[in-house]
Write a structure and sequence with these properties.
The protein is mainly beta. The protein has no helices and 30 strands. It has 3 domains: 91 residues, Immunoglobulin-like; 92 residues, Immunoglobulin-like; 91 residues, Sandwich (Immunoglobulin-like). The radius of gyration is 41 Å and the shape is rod-shaped.
C-alpha cells in the first residue's frame, strides 16, 4: 500500500482593493495602493502618460511593492493625466488592477487680499510697503516710478522679490517724495498687479522769503509775512518788547498763519522797537525766521 499524496492547488491572486485616482495640487506627495489576496504575491507597477498612451514598466524602487509613491517633487503639472496600474502575480498567474489617474490641479490666478498702502514719512525714517495675496506658488516683483506720470522701473533691491518692499532710513529723502511703488504677483496661472502706493516724504521746512522790518506812522496797519516750502507746515509767531526783552508766544488769531498782522489801533508809539519772528514747523522739525523790528514814527 502506497503513502498518501497531497494535492496542493495554488490560486492566482485576487485584487481586493483597487488603487484610487487622485487629484492633488502641484508639489503634493501621492500614493497609489493595491490590496490583493493569495500566496507568494509579487507586484509590478506600470504607468502611461495619458488614458490612450502605451503602458511602461516602472523601474522605481517602489514599483515592486503594493504601494506606488510619488514624491512632492515628482507631482508636477507635466504629470497631469498620468495613469498607474499594478500587476499582482504568483506561480498560479496574475491579476491586473484598474488604472488610477493622477490629476494635478492648476492653481488659480493670485488674488490680492491687501493692497500696499501709501505712506507719509519724515525724512530719514525707514518705510515699508506690504502686499498680501492668496494663491499657489506665488512670486513677487516690485516696481517703482519717480512720479504719478513716470515710467515704471523694475526694482533690483534684495527685497523686491518678497511681499514687503522696504526703504531704509537713508533712502527716505526729499528726493523720493512722490515716488510710487507697485507689486506684480505671479504664479503658473498668470499675474495680477497691485494698486500703486505713494511715498510722501516730509522734510524740515525751508524759509524761502523772510519777514521784513517795518517803519510806519502810528495808526497804520502793518503785516509781517514769512514764506516757506515743505509739507504740513505750521506757523507760530513770537514777539518781544525790545531787542533785549524776553520772547513771548503770541496768542493773536493771526499768530498761527504765515502773516502776522497788527491793526491800525495796535500800531502805537508804545510798540516802537517791538520785535517779531516766526517758527515754521512740521513733523520733520522746525526753522525760525529772521527777527524783524517794528519802528513807529
Amino acid at each position: 500500500m502506497s503513502n498518501p499524496a497531497t494535492l496542493t492547488v495554488k490560486q492566482k491572486p485576487v485584487i481586493t482593493a483597487q488603487p484610487k485616482s487622485q487629484t492633488v495640487k502641484p508639489g503634493t506627495a501621492v500614493d497609489f495602493k493595491v490590496a490583493a489576496s493569495g500566496e507568494g504575491l509579487k507586484y509590478q507597477w506600470y504607468y502611461r502618460t495619458s488614458a490612450s498612451g502605451t503602458w511602461s514598466k516602472s523601474t522605481a524602487a517602489c514599483a515592486t511593492t503594493d504601494t506606488y509613491s510619488l514624491t512632492a517633487a515628482q507631482v508636477v503639472k507635466a504629470r497631469n493625466g498620468y495613469q498607474y496600474k499594478c500587476v499582482v502575480s504568483n506561480e498560479a498567474g496574475s491579476a491586473t488592477s484598474n488604472a488610477a489617474t493622477l490629476t494635478v490641479s492648476s492653481p488659480g490666478l493670485p488674488v490680492i487680499t491687501a493692497q500696499p498702502q501709501s505712506k507719509t514719512a519724515v525724512s530719514g525714517t525707514a518705510v515699508s510697503f506690504k502686499i498680501t495675496a492668496s494663491g499657489e506658488g506665488l512670486k513677487y516683483q516690485w516696481y517703482y516710478r519717480t512720479s504719478a506720470s513716470g515710467t515704471w522701473s523694475k526694482s533690483t533691491a534684495s527685497c523686491a522679490t518678497t511681499d514687503t518692499y522696504s526703504l531704509t532710513a537713508s533712502q527716505v529723502v526729499s528726493a523720493r517724495n512722490g515716488y510710487q511703488y507697485k507689486c506684480i504677483v505671479t504664479n503658473s496661472a498668470g499675474s495680477v498687479t497691485s494698486n500703486p502706493a505713494t511715498l510722501t516724504v516730509i522734510s524740515k521746512p525751508v524759509i524761502t522769503s523772510q519777514p521784513s522790518n517795518k517803519t510806519v506812522s502810528a495808526g497804520t496797519a502793518v503785516s509781517f509775512k514769512v514764506t516757506a516750502s515743505g509739507t504740513n507746515l505750521k506757523y507760530q509767531w513770537y514777539y518781544r518788547t525790545s531787542a533785549a526783552g524776553t520772547w513771548k508766544k503770541s496768542t493773536a488769531a493771526c499768530a498761527t498763519t504765515a502773516t502776522y498782522s497788527l491793526t491800525a489801533s495796535q500800531v502805537v508809539k508804545a510798540r516802537s522797537g517791538y520785535q517779531y519772528y516766526c517758527e515754521v514747523s512740521n513733523e520733520a522739525g522746525s526753522v525760525s525766521s529772521n527777527i524783524v523790528t517794528l519802528t513807529v514814527k
